[in-house]
Amino acid sequence: MVHDEIFSPSFGNRPSYLVGRQDIMTSLIEGLRSAPGSKDRAVVLLGQRGSGKTVLLWELAERAAKDGLVIASPTIASEAMLTRIVEKIQESGAQYVEGTRSASLSGGSLGAPGFSFGLEFTREVEKAKSTQYKLVRLAREVTSAGHGTLILVDELQANSPEVRQLVTVYQEMVGEGLDVSLVMAGLPGAVAATLNDRVLTFLNRARKIKLPSLSISDIDAFYADAFARLGISIDASLRREAAQFTQGSPYMLQLVGHAITQRADGAIPLSEGALRDALTCAREDFENDVCSTTLSALSDVDVEFLGAMAADDGPSRVSGVAERMGVTVDYAQKYRRRLINAGIIKPARRGYVRFTVPYLANHMRRARLD
Where is the AAA+ ATPase domain (predicted)? Predict the structure, then answer.
C-alpha cells in the first residue's frame, strides 16, 4: 500500500491542492480588495455536502491573511458564535496593534470603555458591553490600523439568532464605513430559509456563489499528477474511469483517490479489480456520509418524492412522480419546489426534474431493496 500524502477524504480537511476552484477563489480575493461596502464583500457560498464549501473558506482565510487582513477563521453558526468571532479577531489582529493603547472614550457616565492593551478590552467593557458592541469596536480599531477584517461563517443555519445578530451588526459596520467583509457558506436549503428571514433582507443583496460540479477533465488532470507524485502506476483509461466515477464531486474526488492509493502497489500497475474495489468502497463511503445525511434532514414527503424519482433511470416527469406518490400534480409541485430550493434536485426540462446529489438515486434504490 502506498502512503497517502495527498488525498484528505474527511469533511473539513484541507486537500493539498484546490481542484477546479481557482476562478472562484480569485473572484473572492478580488472582492475583498474592493472598496468597503462593496456588494462583493458580502458573499454567500451555496453547495451541497461534499461540494468543498469549508475547504474554500479555509483557503480564503489563508490567502486573505497574506494580504494583511485580520481573519476570524471559519466559525460554525452556533450558540456563542459571536463570542468566538470576537476572540479570533483579537488573536489575529494583535500583530497589527499590539503594544498600542486605544484612547478611551472620555467623559460622561459610561465608564470610559476601551482597550486595556492591544485588542484586549478593559474589564468594564468585558463585563458591561454586548458582544455586538465589542465586534464593532474591534473593527474600528483594525480599520484605524490600516487593515481590513474578514469574518468567515460555516454551516449557515436557517433562522439562526446568532446569524441574525451577526448580519445586523455587519450592516452597522458597513454603514459606518469600516473595512470589513463577510463570507458565509451553507446548504442551499438553509441559505434560502435564511435569506427569506425579513430581518436578514440585507443579505439578499449579497453576492451568491453556487459551487458547481468540478469538470471531469480537471479531476483527471489532478489524478494524473497526484498518482505520479505518489508513484502509482495506473492506465490512462482506468484513471479516466476513476475521474468520471466522481461525478464532479470534490469529496468523491478525495474518496476515490484515497481508496486507489490504499490498494496500489508502487511496483506494479493498478489492476482493474483493484480499481473496481476502490470505486465500490468510495461510493459506499459517499452514500453513508453524504446521501444518508442529506435524506435525514428532509421530511417524509420529501423523501417519498425522491423515492418516486429514483424509479427513473434519467430525468423524472413531475406528473409521473405525482402518480407514483398517489397525489395530485399540484401537491407534488410543492415538494418539487422545496427540493429545488434545497439544491437536491434541479429542473431538467419543462415538466422534468433530475437529481443533483451524486449517487443519491442509486442509494435510494438500494435502500428500497434492503
Answer: 39-205
Distance CA 45, CA 208 (A): 6
Q: Give CA angle at 217 (214, 221), nearest 5°.
A: 105
Same domain, 37 and 126: yes
SS3 readout for 251-290: HHHHHHHHHHHHHCECCECCCHHHHHHHHHHHHHHHHHHH
Say if 1 falls within a structural domain. no
User: What is this structure's pTM?
Assistant: 0.85
Per DSSP, the three-state class of 105 is coil
Q: How many domains does the chain have?
A: 3
* Closest to 50 in 3D by CA, of 12, 22, 77, 15: 12
Do 26 and 143 fall into the same domain? yes
Specify whether the CB–CB gap between 282 and 359 falls below 8 A: no
In a shared domain, residues 287 and 310: no
Any idea what the CATH number is for the domain that residue 176 is in? Answer: 3.40.50.300
- Each residue's pLDDT, cut to its tens digit, for the chain (370 residues) gives 677 788 977 655 667 678 999 999 999 999 999 998 888 999 999 998 889 899 999 999 999 999 999 999 999 888 889 999 999 999 999 888 765 444 443 333 332 347 776 788 888 888 889 999 999 999 999 999 999 999 999 988 767 888 889 989 999 999 999 999 999 998 887 776 666 665 566 667 789 999 999 999 999 999 999 999 999 999 999 999 999 999 999 999 999 999 999 999 877 999 999 999 999 999 999 999 999 999 998 999 999 999 999 999 999 999 999 999 999 999 999 999 999 988 899 999 999 999 999 999 999 998 776 6
Same domain, 318 and 231: no
Helix (H, G, I), strand (E, B) or coil at 73: strand
